[in-house]
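If I may wish for something, please walk me through the protein I am sending here so I can picture the backbone:
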Amino acid sequence: MIRLARLAAASSIVALASLASAGALAQHAYPSKPIRVVVPFAAGSTTDIIARAITDKMSTSMGQPLIIENRGGASGTIGQQIVATAAPDGYTIMIHSSSHTVSPSTFAKLPFDTVHDFAGITPISSLPNALVISPSKNIKTLQELLAAARAKPGSINYASAGQGSATHLNAEKFRVAAKIEATNIPFKGSGEAVTEVMAGRVDYYFSPIAPVIGQIKEGQLLALAVGSPKRSSALPNVPTTSEAGVPGSEFNFWIGMMAPAKTPRDVVNRLHDEVQKALASPEVKERFAKLGADAWTLKPEQFDAYIKDEIKSNAVLVQAAGLQPQ
């Protein structure tokens, strides 16, 4: 009997060791096929540009292609739903913006839980938003824009990458702090918004720098200010909105990577480490510098905590701005 018991115990140990080895092998094998990266904005948007910059490098490092899938619309919530309901196996992830923490306050009912249906991997970048305007408007400073808005209350409008997007909230924080009236004109992404502002059909846009840096340098757009707490390294001569006379208007625009909730922690940690590795590469550093983007990472659990806190602070801002949930 004792011998049988020992044999049984030995068999159990062997079985457990086999399972552990299989688990280690599975972890080592990830990824064994292409990874789908959902970007909930149109191609050419800032989120899309940053996503492509980072995933190009990650594909090389991980030995599998990271394939961008643009699913724009509804301020990013269409793409969010796709990821929230995807299999939590590490083969569907999302690169989204600060809009992720805005939508819970600007949509009356979402088909997912922003906190519980996603696992944070890491922020990737923080980017200043530049307040851009067409030169045809003959407005050369932020104070001139404010004077025009106050001279004819309600006559000024601004573009956004959708109701409840980070660009929308940045503009609303500025509007409230500046005490002006201005109407939001939402678009599906930065590409459309920039086109309409350049044409003069919309007055101004708090655009992430990436999709407008070329137009600013070529004189097709004029940057009156940046909405960030500090000046942009890409536009060092452009003041912040606070420096230009509107204190309390600062906004942190970020882009980060997330996965469906219940994605295995070893996969989440692997993706986190790969993002850090990519950000440290000379190629990505150079691309970010040209985009006016600053690298920014947090550990997965820290990113989850940051998202929860920002959802709360954005809810206060949405209420103060008088925005009605859709």
